[in-house]
Design goal:
With 266 residues, the protein is α+β, with helices and mostly antiparallel strands. 26% of the residues lie in helices and 33% in strands. It has one domain: Endonuclease/exonuclease/phosphatase (Deoxyribonuclease I, Chain A), CATH 3.60.10.10. Strand 7, helix 3 and strand 8 form a beta-alpha-beta unit.
Length: 266
């Protein structure tokens, strides 16, 4: 049974009717079976979005921390045999000001093993502490992968997808953004996972011109994915990256400076 997923940092999301419609429409365009929406700043914005016509077919859970609603996790109603949600506070690495992860475990119909989606929003910044916190948070992914694979019902296969805004921006006077991403790719490989190739390298922009590669999908090696748009890409990037000129600038300013990531498991 194949199914799809998406993750999107909607950037300090507060209630605005136009923005709710635009966010809901872009998600609906891809019709993911599993969705993670990052960076809500108030509960009313979350309520308005999940009650919109675009997301009427989903059920939702969310992380709850000092950051209020930070990650909203949704799954298509009736799609799966069983759905489990747990908040993973170990992703805060002992710092209550960091964000917990949201782990959604779905059991596809006529299958015996769960597929696990860990939605993340890691520490942001280029200072030494933020850089070190990201490394600790990435280490939690590998630990979770091992624990999931050890569960009897998983039969040695973690079936883990870790995805979201990983803030791979490097460190001032240290590793560059490219070096941090390369280290992440190497660590994933060492632990039986891989960073999936995307249709666009850059996922964040401050003004439609300056760009960074901050959002990623990491999957355990036993999972396979459909190709998106062009080989070897397995993750489709949508949002400001597919717009130009004033449309791009307005999207970054009024909708989100991050792009949505979408993929499909075989």
């Amino acid at each position: 049974m194949s199914f799809s997923f998406a993750v999107w940092n909607v950037e300090k999301f507060k209630y605005n009717p136009q923005r709710v419609r635009a966010v809901g429409q872009l998600i609906a365009n891809h019709s993911p079976d599993v969705i993670g929406i990052l960076e809500f700043l108030d509960k009313d914005a979350a309520r308005r979005l999940v009650r919109s016509d675009h997301l009427a077919d989903y059920d939702f859970a969310f992380t709850d921390s000092t950051r209020s609603i930070e990650i909203l996790v949704g799954w298509r109603r009736g799609k799966f045999e069983q759905v489990l949600y747990t908040q993973r506070r170990e992703l805060q690495v002992g710092n209550v000001n960091l964000r917990p992860g949201g782990l959604l475990s779905v059991l596809p119909k006529r299958q015996d093993a769960f597929t696990n989606f860990l939605f993340l929003h890691t520490d942001s910044g280029k200072d030494a502490q933020a850089f070190a916190n990201r490394k600790l948070m990435f280490d939690k992914i590998w630990s979770l992968r091992d624990r999931l694979a050890a569960l009897p019902e998983q039969d040695g296969a973690a079936r883990l997808v870790a995805l979201g805004d990983l803030n791979t921006m490097g460190q001032t006077n240290g590793a560059s953004a490219a070096e941090e991403i390369a280290a992440l790719e190497q660590a994933a490989h060492t632990h039986g996972m891989r960073v999936l190739p995307k249709t666009h390298a850059h996922t964040w922009s401050s003004d439609g011109k300056r760009k960074s590669n901050l959002d990623h999908v990491i999957a355990s090696s036993e999972l396979s994915f459909l190709t998106q748009a062009q080989a070897p890409a397995e993750v489709l990037v949508d949002g400001w990256v597919n717009r130009s000129g004033d449309d791009r600038v307005n999207f970054v300013k009024n909708i989100s400076d991050h792009s949505l990531l979408f993929g499909e498991l075989r």
